[in-house]
Design a protein that fits this description.
By secondary structure, the protein is mostly helical. It is built from ten helices and five strands. α1 packs antiparallel against α2 and α2 runs antiparallel to α3.
Length: 247
Amino acid sequence: MIDNKYTRIYNRITARATERALIGYRENHHVIPRSMGGTNAKSNMVSLTAREHFICHWLLTKMVTGADRAKMVYALRMMRVSNDLQNRYETKITARVYEKYKKEHAINLSIMRTGKPAWNKGVPQSEAHKQKNREAALRRPKPSAESIAKNSAARLGLKRSDETKLKQSMALRGRSKGPMSEEQKQARSITMKGKPKIKSHGANVAAANRGCVSINKDNIEKKVKAEVLDSWLSQGWNLGGRKRLAQ
């Protein structure tokens, strides 16, 4: 670590923490960060208030250089991430400070990830992980009407390039098509539970199906536009919906 004014302030805060007993909410802090060789030994741990913890991580970015600084910039960014078990310190960071560390973190991340495959590529999610994602999605606040309108306007009229269409086609190749499984239906039901349909939902569905013809094959049914019906029939599909079991 560089011996500068920031290091001296940091040392005063951590030294003071060893001489007191905090009451109420507190956060554990490694005096020498673990990413820089620090351990979980009692001598390397102090209890800080949320505000002190944030300030210490800010100071650490000014006390080191090179690869260690990249690690401390990442750690400072994570100090703004909160969850149900943490009560992060809320402070006003100026736009200039935010921009500086955000840019530096993006550059460090790009260098670190270049040429490396995604750690979760090809790794199927466990049922517990899927359930955790569903629950997290249900806790997210609903988007405002203004946000929905803005996103809709941004997508209106957009056309996919041939390259994008090819990539999507290759990604879907080999996946089974047809009716949803019971698991898929249940997952969709949980995701959509409590979300009211927009007033125009019925009209939108009717408009999308207008002029469509029902076809079936191997007990699978779908609706297609009349103008492409012949191409589907040439692939072995039959007119009409699939047979329903008697109730």
